[in-house]
Design a protein that fits this description.
With 102 residues, the chain is α+β, with helices and mostly antiparallel strands. The chain is 61% helix and 14% strand. A hairpin with a 2-residue loop joins strand 2 and strand 3. It is elongated and about 65 Å long. The chain starts with a helix and ends in a 9-residue tail after the last helix.
């Protein structure tokens, strides 16, 4: 069963721009400037989304001079993927279970 923390994480990742950011960060560590170039989002909008991802524990930061680099935390994504895999397995094994109507 998914916990409320996991439901919150799903809501965080449900935003199209945040999902795009996570997808980009799955390939390489990027700074805000790179993410602005890749997504076409305005810097302030992007920073707000990165804050949400950081607070949710999806990304971590690395200061580098006047830039901040963002890196995806694969353990968080992996945990969520594992829970979806568990749901899929449960659905496979319960495929023949049918509750009778009253």
């Amino acid at each position: 069963m998914m916990t409320s923390v996991d439901a919150d994480l799903i809501r965080v990742l449900a935003d199209p721009l945040r999902l795009r950011i996570v997808t980009l960060l799955s390939r390489e560590t990027l700074c805000t400037t790179h993410l602005v170039e890749e997504t076409g989002a305005r810097q302030t909008n992007l920073s707000n989304h990165l804050r949400v991802l950081r607070e949710a524990g999806v990304v971590e930061t690395e200061p580098c001079g006047r830039f901040t680099y963002y890196r995806l935390r694969p353990d968080v994504i992996g945990r969520l993927a594992g829970q979806f895999a568990d749901l899929a397995e449960s659905a496979r094994t319960a495929a023949d279970n049918k509750r009778a109507c009253p």
